[in-house]
Amino acid sequence: QVQLVESGGGLVQAGGSLRLSCVASGRTLSNYAMGWFRQAPGKEREFVGVITRDGGNTADGNSVKDRFTISRDNTKNTVFLQMNVLKPEDTAVYYCAASATSSDHYTPRGVGLYDYWGQGTQVTVSL
User: In angstroms, what CA-CA distances link 14 with 43, 77, 98?
Assistant: First the structure.
């Protein structure tokens, strides 16, 4: 079992930045590709981005390209989501998720491809 806990959410003005963290316990994260998703009220959960298990590659969702960056520190079992130039439409609950893999190139995008999820952290972007 992997337990994931997100933090760093909050209220920010449009154009501002936030950095989310996701800390894992139970197992080492180096065996997992790590993804970030978000869900706004009344909408489906949306892929934000993913980082390979070794941190060598990332893939971003179209709506956050060039604004959000994923990184990880496997020595601290932590994954980060740096969010810049935030927009009101970025308002959502943000979730991190872990997908078990033996590949250093695996970048899953589908919700169903992840094995473990955090409880989420709220991000609200005001005008």
Answer: 21, 30, 29
